[in-house]
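W.,

You were right to be curious about this one. When I first looked at the sequence I had no strong expectations either way, so I just let the prediction run and decided to look at it fresh. Below is the sequence, 254 residues in total, followed by the output.
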Amino acid sequence: MLEKIVSERDFITLFGIRIDRLDLRGFMNSIDEFLNSGQRFQVMYVNIHCMNTAWNDLEYKKIINSADLVYCDGAGVVAGSRILGFNLLQRMTGADWIYNLCELCAKGDYSIYLLGGEPGIAEQARDKLISKFPNLKITGTHHGYFEQDYNRHLIEKINSTLPDILLVGMGTPKQEKWINENFDMLNAKIVWGVGALMDFVGGKVSRAPKWMLDNGMEWLYRLAVEPGRMWRRYVLGNPIFFFRVLKERWRRNF
């Protein structure tokens, strides 16, 4: 069943990274298939920061390519893929799909565990999601700033709550490496790297105005809101990525 589900995926390969071609509806349908398959899956995302990280971190690149589903989380990756003649259907950040996922889980009686963010943020995210979806089952929460010697206890704690989906928000590449290292010990049907999702849902980080979201400019908003943390990712990272895209376009042409 696993081989059938994965082999039927429609994807592109960008700088050696496989990215599934999905719109939001197809994305949720895939998650529903995974939940009903009787097997276990890893779901991860890529944006420009991820692509730049994979360029220099071969371990991380291998982990991303071993995931069962990799979706596009950044407008820059959509733009870069189109420059090279590919067609990613759309960009989907956690803040875009989380409410669709909650609706799917509430209707299907699937449960979620929230792992990530600073202390207290996952709990705030849980409260906001349950207030919006009263039938949603969130079996537990934990922050992402735990010591390594607490790891086994944390896994036992997560497993004891029997979640169908474990959302892991620790940032790239930490979350992907944690998922890869601990996947066999976790009992969730889907283990899913989600980046700053807890921060967005919990209210620590606000989203950009709609006109910026609609025009692929959320990165500029995040840079303005968190310049000290985001300047390297966007001021340096974005030009580096597009330089590589244009270099590859030139190589193909000449």
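Here's what jumped out at me. Residues 53 and 221 are 22 Å apart (CA to CA). And, maybe more interesting for your project: The first helix runs from residue 2 to 7.

Coffee later to discuss?

I.
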